[in-house]
Amino acid sequence: MPPDNPREQELAPLKELEIQPSTIETIDRALFEYIDEELDIFCTTNKGFKKVPFIWAGAERAFQIKHNRELRDVNGFLIYPIMSLERKGITKDLAKRGAYYAAAQNVGDTKGGSMTVARTIKQDKTANFANADSKRLILNTVGNGQNNFPKKNEKVVYETITVPIPVYLEVTYTLTVMTEYQQQINEIITPFMTKTGAVNYFIAEKDNHRFEVFIESDYALNNNAASLLDDARGYETQINFRVIGYIIGADKNQEQPKIVRRENAVEVKNPREHVIFGDIPENLHVSGNVPFYRP
Questions:
Q1: Cα–Cα distance for residue pair 211/96, rounded to 1 Å
Q2: 13 has pLDDT over 60
Q3: Given this model, what pLDDT does residue 1 score?
Q4: The whole model's pTM is what?
Q5: pLDDT-based confidence at residue 161 (cuts at 50, 70, 90)
Q6: Structurally, how many domains does the chain consist of?
Q7: 265 within 8 A of 154, measured Cβ to Cβ
Q8: Residue range 244-270: average pLDDT?
Q9: Residues 137 and 25 in one domain
């Protein structure tokens, strides 16, 4: 919990967050890891109460077989129970945009960036300007030539971090649950109904990005338990998700950096070479004499 005292809040150390650019894969992993780690589904099998294998349906079959051989039997068929997640579609709908929405363009330079996400003081460079001003004080001034002399410093260097403007998307997913027994189906789909309480809504996170997830209220059931044919009996349930997410930047196809750091200018100088123009120094030395000057 943050401190309640304003003075303690001012003295509290800053917390730095490593934020990676959000991509479509970031949204995929956020939902996948929430189901795999947060829900952590188990069910009863003939080998005891075990975790239900969970796979991404978009992976190549050759990779699935080599990555985890326990998912298939000697004939190459999947061993039930199992869950798979598949992305069904992506919609860019302006009516379902997020809180930050504007027709803003990137800054017209080599760095780009349009939305400011952080601003902090560069302590080292600000201190350099303050120490330089302290050393330039006249002799009869308190603190002459002293570093870190306490005084008001008008030359503060800020570091501003900007990112491209986020593009909001609605991504739909389908979770398919396949089992051999109805008891297993009941045990697997129950956490999806009870985890969110009375609502069908939760937050999925990945790389410090937060996405809103809505669970469709209809749990489609499909089984052949009533069939008298020779097919193997199986139970299948599909659960649909709608994720309100966003992406930042064009991923690997973006030429400009995804996170831009800029520093402000605190002093503008127009240097002039006195030797070339033959100028006589206008400022006198503290002794009243003209300082050494080479024409």
A1: 13
A2: no
A3: 47
A4: 0.71
A5: confident
A6: 2
A7: no
A8: 84
A9: no
Tokens (6 digits) for 254: 């973006």
Residues 124-154 have pLDDT tens digits of 898 888 888 877 765 545 555 566 677 788 8
For residues 93 and 210, state if they share a domain: yes
pLDDT digits (tens, 9 = 90+) for 29-80: 999 999 999 999 999 998 899 999 998 886 555 555 566 666 666 666 678 8
Kind of pairing, strands 82-91 and 115-121?
unpaired
Give the mean pLDDT of 110-127: 84
* 238: in domain: yes
The answer to whether residues 186 and 208 belong to one domain is yes
